C-alpha cells in the first residue's frame, strides 16, 4: 500500500526549524514588506562570483552554477522558499511504505523551452541519464545522489515509477533532478528545461542571459530578462559596479561592502545555508593526525571570525550540518572544543604529542573570487599563530580550485562553504569513505556504518539519532574546522522588490520585480 506524502521527513524537519507551515500551492508570489505593487517587465543584472562550470544541469559540480540554473531547469518536484518540496513537472506523487518505490503522476501541459510537451519518455530518459542507467552510457552516474536507483519504469503515458535498490525516505529531495528533452543532443551548449526562464546566451567568464518563459505552466516570472554578470574580482570591482549602476543585485557582500552600499541599496540579510569551514585534507601531513586537526579546532575562534568578517552575522556550527536542518542539527557540538572556542595550552599539548612542539607551516588554498573566504582565511591565520602555526594563504582562480582542490584533492587545506539539497545525507554523505564527494579524504569505519544505516532507515527517530551520531564523529575526529553558517548580505536596487531567501543555495529571479 502506498502512502501519499507531500513532504519528506527532511522537509518537515527543516520546516520545524523555520517555523513554517505546510503549503500545497504550486508557486509563490513574493511581496515586499512595504506592499509595493508589481510593475511587470524590465531587465536586471545580477552579479555572481564564479563562472559556470557547465550548462548541463546533470553534470554541475558547484553551488554557484546550481543557483543560477535553478531558474532554467526543474525536476519532478522543486523547493520553495519555505523549504517545502512542491509538485513541479509531476502533479503529485506517492511513496511506498518501505521507501523503495516512488510513483509520479505527471502534470499535463508542461512544455519544454523548445515548445514541446514533456512526456513520460522524457522523464525516464532524464532520470536514467542522471542515474547512469542509459543503455548507451551504462554505469556513468552523473548525479551521485541517484546511485541508489535500480530502475525507472513508465507505468502509462502520465505515470513514471522510480524503484530504489533499498528503502530511502529522503530520496524525494533528489527528485529535483532536472527533466530534459530526450532528443536534446548537447545540454551543455543548448540547455532546455521547463523553468520560468529560458536560456538565451552564455559568454564564458563574462555573463549568462536568461529570458522570461511565456509558456510557463505556473506563475510566470515578472522580469523579461536577467543577466548574470560574472565578477572575478570579489573586492574592488563589486563596489564600483554597484555604484555606477551596472549591477542591480549582488548576493555575496562582505560586512564592509554592505556598509559602503547601504545608503544607495537595500541590504537584505538572510542565511546562506552553507557549512563554512577550514576544510582539512585528512590524507595529507600534518592533518593525517587527528591530534593536529583537534589542535586547530582549539585555536580557531569562530565567534571572532564571525565578528570580524561578517560583522556579527552568522550562526556557529560544530560539525558538517547547518542549523536549517532543524531537529537533525546538533547544536550541542558548537562549543565542544571550548565555550569561547579557544584553548591555546590544550592545542600546544596536542601538537607536542603529535611531534610538532614548535608548530608547523601549511597552506590554505582559497578561491580568489570569494572575498569572505579570503578574509576568513586571514583571520584564521592570525589565530593559529598563538599555537606556533604559520598558515600561508594561496589564492587561486575558481576553475583551478574546482579542478585541483575539490575534484583533484590536491591541497592541504581550504576555506569554502558547502551547500546541500533538502536532505541531511547531502551534507553528511560526503564523508562516507567511498563517496566521490569526500574531498577531505575523511575515513572512519564507525562513520561509514552510521551514515549508511541513517540513509537506509525508514524511521525518522532513528534517522535523527544516527545523523547526530555522524556529526559527533566528525566533531570528535575534527574532520575539519567547522565555523559557521554564514549570513547572506545582499545588495538590491531600491527600485526592486521580491528578493527571496531559500533554505538552500538558490537565486530565484522569478519572484523579483520592479515596484511601482
Structural class: alpha+beta
Shape: globular
Could you tell me how far the N terminus lies from the C terminus, measured between alpha carbons in angstroms?
52 Å
Number of helices: 13
State the low-pLDDT regions, or none. 1-33
Mean pLDDT: 90
| Biggest beta sheet attributes | 8 strands, mixed
So what's the CATH class of the largest domain?
Alpha Beta
Count of separate structural domains: 2
Share of helix, binned: 25-40%
Strand content: 15-25%
Give the CATH superfamily of the largest domain: Dipeptide-binding Protein, Domain 1
CATH T-level topology of the largest domain = Dipeptide-binding Protein, domain 1
- Tally of DSSP β-strands: 22
Radius of gyration using CA atoms only: 23 Å
- CATH architecture field of the largest domain: Alpha-Beta Complex
